[in-house]
Amino acid sequence: VNGVEGKTSKSISQPKTKKSKPSNVEYRKVPVPQHRFAPFKENWMKIYTPIVEHLKLQIRFNLKTRNVEIRSCPETEDISYVQKAADFVKAFVYGFDVEDALALLRLENLFVETFEIKDVKTLRGDHLSRAVGRLAG
After folding, report:
1. What does UniProt give as the signal peptide span (predicted)?
2. Are 29 and 44 within 8 A, CB to CB?
3. CATH class for domain 27-106?
């Protein structure tokens, strides 16, 4: 008929629905500054291994945004592990060694608190450097 041959199908395709994420997925992003990028890449496996094997979380390093993205998965036993892992990564970003930062994963009620020296006293130039040196030493 009209030069068209073949069978016609009367099946109506169902509209495709997007799969929604489960509502119980916890997610954290930890930014990695420029000066910690090289040490982070060198120690990636030391950071990755305890988070994936012990806490059973999913982790990736987004090179475009320079963020470490941590999220829970169905195998995650405790939802608070996501925050523990984020604190562990933040401690490394702040300058702790991986071995020292691992204490945050092992021990309960342990956390890292930081502050800006400029919030305490207004200092500039050499005076600021000297104050940082005195606190660190």
Report:
1. none
2. no
3. alpha beta
